Amino acid sequence: MTHAATWSVTRLTGTFGAELTGLDLADSAAAAQIPALLAAYRVLAVRDQDLAPGAQVALARVLGEPTPAHPVLPGLPGHPEILVLDGESGGRNARWHTDVTFIARPHAAAILVADIVPEFGGDTLFADLHSAYDALSAPLRAAVDQLRAVHRIAPLAYWGEPFDTGLSRADAADLRAAADRVAPVIHPVVRVDPRTGRRGLFVNRGFTSHLVGLSRIESDGLLDLLYRHIEQPELTLRHRWRSGDVLIWDNRATSHYAVDDYGHTARRVRRVTIAGEIPVGPDGFASQVSEDPLVTVR
């Protein structure tokens, strides 16, 4: 544990994640510490906060430029930057994903505030994509360094599978229609961090469709290998929510999963995301939107 002023930083695993205590995120001087801590630890759990929507957006501005709540979903009235995920209306997010990788400039970071913490369950899991890349064998690292992947919006990605969702059929149809208007994007499978030069895997179950130039058998098999590799317990951490918690994560270098084990108990969280840059791979390939069906349709 290390100390700065009256607050402390405690590591959560041997590779990533830190818990901050005694820090008031509503204080601008304290919030100014967050960018450096986020670059170092990739996931920050900040305890004992009462972060109102306006303060949440203000904190996002310390990290960069807040984005609209979501490309196809509405924001919180009065705060268009905030996306509300309510378990009672289907917003359960129980799938490994990196936020909004289906656009050419995926979000750089996110801030999640819990308004209602369930009485049991509802934890959030994170995977460290930098450490996952480092843990691959050298031949496999060399192979994935050269690959690209198609990412596209999955209409129900934030609501679980259709048989689990709390959405009506009409709502699901509207989401599908909105998703069809978002063109697929091609990203490098390995992303180079623009701040440090560190490499990380950049595929996820939520939005990655397939690998470009590979057969279906090759693509499905290699992606499944990478997903199972990323999701090893040794490369993950688990956050158990308490009232007043705020989670901040580096969206360039992590995936996450909201565990759907809280039944009909209420769980409501709100998220603000920070604008990112175009991902670039080790070979210099920069992400690009593509409407070529011979590449993007699978």
The averaged pLDDT comes out at 91
The total count of strands amounts to 17
The coarse overall form would be: globular
Secondary structure class reads alpha+beta
* Total count of helical runs of at least 4 residues: 8
Sheet-strand content, in percent, reads 25-35%
How are the strands of the largest sheet arranged?
A: 1-2-3-4-14-6-16-5
Report the span from N to C terminus: 48 Å
The helicity comes to 10-25%
Main pleated sheet: 8 strands, mixed
Write a brief structural summary:
This protein has 298 residues and is of the alpha+beta class. Helices cover 22% and strands 25% of the residues.
Topology of this protein?
Layout lengths: L1 E3 L2 E5 L6 E4 L6 H4 L2 H8 L1 E4 L6 H11 L18 E5 L22 E8 L7 E5 H7 L2 H7 L3 E4 L17 H11 L5 E4 L1 E3 L6 E3 L6 E4 L4 H15 L5 E4 L6 E5 L3 E5 L9 E7 L13 E2 L3 H4 L2
Parallel strand pairs: 3-4
Antiparallel strand pairs: 1-2, 2-3, 4-14, 5-16, 6-14, 6-16, 7-13, 7-15, 8-9, 8-12, 9-17, 10-11
List keywords for this structure.
eight-stranded mixed sheet, 22% helix, alpha+beta, 298 residues
